[in-house]
Write a structure and sequence with these properties.
mainly alpha
Length: about 230
């Protein structure tokens, strides 16, 4: 395959969500990504094979698409379909917690801290932090997926996304505590409470709330309970 066609497949894979639908989910976007290959493909039915229900995390679909393109290029259409169907669910299970539950809250909370400090670069910081990570993973996953024909499984294994997800969540917890301490200090006259006490107290409160939610108590119950408690104290 020409490098220009491979680049075209990658660029098209970035818009896989743009044609999401209830019947096939990402099927049209998946087939659209393979058009550069289909134009020079001598076989038949390439696109038809891939216009079938498909759903995975959009940032990890590039690795699957690259693997499918390599197998289709080698006239292994049936193997390509099987590879796609085998990887879509595991990649969704790995990608959703990392990107939606880890990276996005981490980037958002860090940017909000900058915003409350009056720094105008806060939105730009969020975009640079979040997009640099996910675009790099998409590009590297695409390259490895095409190279190993296995959807970049080895690359994602080395990335250890579940481990990084837990670390990002703890960092986000600290940022939320820091943000709470900033708001508390801004509402209290200077000198009444030491900064370390405020930060430590809010950090313990956030950790306690996280522990309560993990114990199975609804976050809504926690939210309304906290609101009633603070109203009563006030």
């Amino acid at each position: 395959m020409k490098k220009s066609d491979l680049a075209g497949i990658f660029l098209r894979s970035l818009s896989i969500q743009s044609s999401w639908n209830f019947r096939g989910m990402q099927d049209i976007g998946f087939a659209y990504s393979l058009i550069p290959l289909a134009r020079s493909f001598t076989g038949t039915g390439l696109l038809e094979r891939h216009v079938r229900p498909f759903s995975s995390h959009p940032y990890l679909t590039g690795a699957i698409i690259a693997s499918v393109a390599r197998l289709e290029e080698e006239s292994a259409g049936l193997d390509a379909v099987r590879r796609k169907e085998a990887l879509m669910a595991p990649y969704a299970a790995v990608g959703d917690p990392f990107f939606w539950g880890g990276l996005r809250p981490f980037s958002s909370s860090a940017a909000v801290i900058l915003a409350v400090q009056g720094l105008i670069i806060a939105p730009l910081f969020f975009l640079l932090l979040y997009n640099s990570v996910h675009i790099w993973i998409r590009l590297r996953g695409f390259i490895e997926g095409y190279r190993d024909r296995k959807g970049g499984v080895g690359f994602l294994g080395r990335m250890a996304l579940p481990y990084k997800t837990s670390r990002l969540k703890w960092c986000t917890t600290f940022f939320l505590a820091l943000l709470g301490a900033i708001f508390v200090n801004s509402a209290i006259p200077p000198g009444e409470l030491p900064w370390g006490f405020t930060l430590g107290g809010t950090l313990l409160l956030v950790i306690f709330c996280s522990w309560v939610v993990r114990r199975g108590i609804s976050s809504l119950v926690l939210l309304y309970g906290a609101a009633l408690f603070f109203v009563a104290v006030a």
